Amino acid sequence: AQSGSLAAPGDCPALAAYEKHFRGILIEDEKVGEEDPQTLLTAGNLGCVLQAQGRLDEAEPLLRRALWGFGAKRGLHHPDTLVSTNNLASLLYAQDKFEDAEPLFRSVLSMTNLANLLSATGRRAEAE
């Protein structure tokens, strides 16, 4: 990119460094287990980096893996599952897969609103 111009998302050196970082961690994490929460977190982080680079087709299986894994391990209402749901919904939206993204966005919004209500009414443990 020329001086003073904006680089395309995929050209960002910081994103390339993050991608390399998360790919290395993912290799190590997978030795512990593909369904280990740390492995799922790393897969989701790598998916987000790939999405930021505009590599949506590469990001999708990683974000789905994180969502399915957290949903199975921690339940549908756990914060990690909700973040993963939102991340996948954002990716699907970016891919113009609006019908697939909408129910995911609705689910996250509903659960976030409920958690905020429970927390505000002193039922923080129930909100988590």
Automatic annotation (TrEMBL):
SUPFAM superfamilies: TPR-like. It comes from the Eukaryota. This is Tetratricopeptide repeat protein.
